[in-house]
Design a protein that fits this description.
This protein is α/β, with parallel strands linked by helices. Helices cover 34% and strands 33% of the residues. The chain is built from 7 helices and 15 strands.
């Protein structure tokens, strides 16, 4: 079975715990996953900025940061992003646990813990997340996108006119704004957009509801947008247009 590389972002204000957890993640325990610590932060604002610009598979966070339940605030921010979370704490306060579960179903680790316990919690979270994705995206009709650092907006699929690929990034074009998302177009179409868009070129995918007119090598969209159609994508586009004539 191939081993998947998992990128983790961590929010932890105790420098000793930071080192311990980094060592635990580096241990080769899981037969399915290899863990990489992409970044560690002590402030929620810095972590959120990082998440806006980088793609991660999981967030590992202490609940109490500087004696405040910052981990709960993190859950509220991530609630609609579908990023899985594992929470850590030295507190056994049941109220904190119940508050955490209100916002997102998470694994909850009481410090101190062993590397096996940590990696088992992460693996269980990833497996549960993988199984639930087919249900999570059935009714999803929007994305959370960033038009400027540190700020995310809920953008409905119907607002998006087309998507432009740029290596590992995508530019999401609406009628009034352009957003940047650090995700490849192939992955975005496969994981997030649930059949609402069709790829017409290696660089472009368009919202089906905004297609207005098809020419030999171009496609006209709402808002006077005209995009090229690649030869290898013409057959699928024609099939879509015939079904909706």
């Amino acid at each position: 079975m191939p081993i998947s590389d998992i990128v983790i972002a961590m929010l932890e204000d105790d420098p000793i715990d930071q080192i311990k957890i980094e060592i635990m993640l580096a241990e080769r325990i899981s037969s399915k996953y290899k863990y990489h610590l992409g970044a560690t932060y002590t402030q929620l604002e810095d972590l959120v900025k990082y998440l806006n610009d980088h793609e991660v598979d999981l967030v590992l966070s202490d609940i109490m940061i500087e004696n405040k339940p910052i981990g709960i605030e993190l859950l509220k921010i991530l609630r609609d992003t579908l990023v899985p979370v594992v929470l850590m704490t030295t507190s056994q306060d049941q109220k904190l646990f119940l508050e955490a579960q209100k916002n997102l179903s998470v694994q909850y680790l009481i410090k101190p813990f062993h590397a096996i316990t940590l990696q088992s919690a992460i693996e269980n979270t990833l497996e549960a997340h993988k199984k639930s994705k087919q249900y999570n995206f059935i009714d999803k009709k929007y994305l959370y996108l960033s038009s400027k650092p540190g700020h995310q907006e809920q953008v409905w699929f119907t607002e998006i006119v087309y998507i432009e690929a740029d290596d590992s990034h995508c530019y999401i074009h609406t009628f009034s704004k352009r957003y940047v998302l650090k995700k490849s177009l192939t992955r975005l179409l496969g994981e997030d957009l649930n059949g609402h868009f069709i790829r017409i070129h290696h660089k472009f995918a368009v919202n089906k509801v905004h297609i207005q007119q098809s020419e030999a090598n171009t496609l006209k969209l709402a808002g006077l947008v005209v995009l090229p159609v690649g030869k290898s994508f013409r057959k699928e586009l024609n099939s879509l247009l015939k079904r909706h004539i």
